[in-house]
Amino acid sequence: AQRVTQPEKLLSVFKGAPVELKCNYSYSGSPELFWYVQYSRQRLQLLLRHISRESIKGFTADLNKGETSFHLKKPFAQEEDSAMYYCALSETTGTASKLTFGTGTRLQVTL
Amino acid sequence: ETGVTQSPTHLIKTRGQQVTLRCSSQSGHNTVSWYQQALGQGPQFIFQYYREEENGRGNFPPRFSGLQFPNYSSELNVNALELDDSALYLCASSGTYGNTIYFGEGSWLTVV
Predict the structure, then answer these.
(1) How far apart are CA A88 and CA A81, in angstroms?
(2) Is A61 exposed, middle or buried (0-12, 13-18, 19+ CB in 10 A)?
(3) Residue B10 — pLDDT band, cuts 50, 70, 90?
(4) Does the beta-carbon distance from B43 to A44 stay under 8 Å?
(5) From the list A43, A92, A95, which residue is nearest B105 (CB)?
(6) Do B43 and A93 touch (CB under 8 A)?
(7) Best residue in A48, A93, A95, A100 to probe B by mutation, most B CBs within 10 Å?
(8) Which residues does A30 contact at the CB level (< 8 Å), separation at least 6?
(9) Is B56 in contact with A104 (Cβ distance < 8 A)?
(10) What are phi and psi of B59, to 5 degrees?
(11) What Cα–Cα distance (Å) separates residue B74 from each residue in A92, B7, B22, B33, B62?
């Protein structure tokens, strides 16, 4: 069965410091991976997906199939990055698709 | 701005009761999924509806059931509520296969 692991519950960094939120996955097929973010009092929203290989709000994530990882990175943290971040893996069977989420990492950016 | 709306936002029920949660999907989206998010956990997939049929289910007992209507809105029903059912219930909608999934703000259920 697929599984997503986010080993850190809380990551606290100073403003301007680099950020790396870790995500490892277990999946037998070809994975489709996402990062979702939840800012305070807001709904869960998509941050980025690996197939688009884009950078959103300065964040990037590279799929490493050898290490089964999809770590989220940003070179310089900003206060507004403070939020809950979830890594998720999509599994599609026919027309059905579901997301398997990790337990999330709270990013706290301090001055 | 996502158009997925859920109601009610908060509710309290007694163990053994039944609850119905409602979701209006984003315009044009024909697929609705429901997730349960317990405190301190990531969302867990309950089931998915596509064109009014259930077409995928997670590891949840049959007392969790759902419906999707012709306008693609959806309901989640939970019978015989247990204390462990206390959680945030999220509705998510998407269009055709491969499209982005949009989440609602969720319904907070407390079972006492």
Answers:
(1) 19
(2) buried
(3) very high
(4) yes
(5) A43
(6) no
(7) A95
(8) none
(9) no
(10) -85, 65
(11) 21, 11, 6, 9, 17
Pull the structure tokens for residue B99: 């499209």
Query: How far is the alpha carbon of B4 from chain A, nearest alpha carbon, in Å?
Result: 10
pLDDT of residue A1: 77
Q: In what order do the strands lie in the sheet with B5-7?
A: B5-7, B19-24, B74-78, B64-68
A97/B42 CB distance under 8 A: no
CA proximity to A67, closest of A22, A107, A101, A15: A22
Q: What is the pLDDT of residue B95?
A: 78
Phi, psi (5° rounding) for residue B91? Answer: -105, 140
B97–A97: do the CB atoms touch at under 8 Å?
A: yes
How confident is the model over B25-78, as pLDDT tens digits? Answer: 888 888 999 999 999 899 999 999 998 999 899 999 999 999 999 988 999 999
How close B26 gets to chain A, by Cα (Å)? 14
pLDDT digits (tens, 9 = 90+) for A76-96: 999 999 999 999 999 887 777
Q: Do B101 and A101 touch (CB under 8 A)?
A: no
